[in-house]
Design brief:
Length: about 325
């Protein structure tokens, strides 16, 4: 009989003082974390993991922690401007917050594999809340926590010259915007889950991706979600690659602002369904076509069911992000 020992793997990125947001799981030097290379668009070499992690139906025995906000399987990801999902090059990865990062100022990306029973218990209790029917007990966890500053350009106060792909940037260490986020991979040898935690988010875009050199906004904003490597299986957290991604701390699929939770062995988000890579909450309804002929609903079993149903005669079919809704038209009064 095979026995799987309790195991924890933690990956964290941090710049400056360690963040203490209560939504984050423990990380840092006191937890025995290791650090990724200080390199623009850098990554670790392949990190062997002692328990295979199933991601979109495929087992992986190693992973890469990438400085640009990605944990990948099979190959490191050095690209700094996020592409829209799906990416069909066969590279599977989770993107807690994929954006251009240079951690050579003072930034550190931490990661570890651990057997800490206290953290295993905490993760198991959280997963029981989010997936009450699974009776899940964590035996392996990988956590990546990040507090990353963005290199934005030249400033007027305490400065430091930092080399990058375009030469040298002069960076103000006092006012450089920072983001804080964390990815947690956990498995019991069969089921696999990923928890994404978000602390304060202040920038969306690196300068090389078109971001404003003072604010870190504009250009091509960060991507958050999952990519299986094929054209069918992927997921976008709402706001990805739009200016709204800066508000990801206010969003959730488990009623805890700043936290998103997913089963990833076969991919299923807690609290709802996936429809064409978008999240739909349990019992939420929408129309999938521009004439509002097919109404869809996210059922409690995680499936989306669609059937023919038109808008009421007093309502108009209107576009709403990726779907359609029936609403009272502008200027109408009933």
């Amino acid at each position: 009989m095979k026995t799987i020992l309790p195991l924890l793997l933690v990956a964290t990125a941090c710049l400056g003082d360690l963040a203490t947001d209560p939504i984050l799981y423990p990380y840092g030097p006191s937890e025995g974390d290791r650090i990724t290379p200080r390199k623009d668009d850098g990554a670790t070499s392949a990190i062997p993991i002692s328990t295979p992690f199933v991601f979109f139906g495929k087992k992986h025995n190693s992973l890469y922690v990438n400085n640009n906000g990605v944990i990948s399987f099979g190959v490191a990801v050095s690209k700094y401007t996020p592409d829209a999902f799906p990416l069909t090059d066969g590279s599977p990865f989770v993107a807690p917050y994929w954006g251009d990062v240079n951690n050579q100022i003072a930034g550190k990306v931490y990661y570890r594999e651990s057997k800490d029973p206290n953290l295993l218990d905490r993760i198991s209790k959280d997963m029981k809340e989010y997936y009450p029917n699974f009776n899940y007990r964590a035996t392996w966890i990988f956590v990546r926590k990040a507090r990353i500053s963005q290199i934005l350009g030249s400033f007027q106060r305490r400065r430091q010259k930092i080399p990058n792909r375009r030469g040298t940037s002069i960076v103000d260490l006092d006012i450089t915007p920072t983001n804080t986020f964390q990815a947690v991979l956990t498995s019991n040898g069969k089921l696999a889950f990923i928890i994404l935690n978000y602390g304060p988010i202040t920038w969306t875009t690196g300068k090389a991706s078109g971001g404003d050199p003072l604010t870190g906004l504009g250009g091509i904003p960060a991507q958050a979600g999952f990519n299986s490597g094929d054209k069918t299986h992927y997921f976008n957290i709402p706001g990805s690659r739009t200016p709204d991604i800066v508000n990801i701390k206010k969003t959730s699929n488990v009623n805890t602002p700043g936290r998103w939770v997913f089963e990833v062995d076969r991919f299923r988000p807690a609290g709802g369904c996936v429809y064409e890579a978008n999240f739909v909450r349990y019992n939420e309804t929408f129309w999938k076509d521009p004439t509002c002929e097919m109404k869809c609903k996210c059922n409690m079993d995680g499936d989306v069911e669609c059937e023919e149903e038109w808008c009421s005669s007093n309502l108009l079919c209107q576009s709403s992000t990726w779907h359609y809704t029936c609403r009272i038209g502008i200027g109408q009064c009933f």
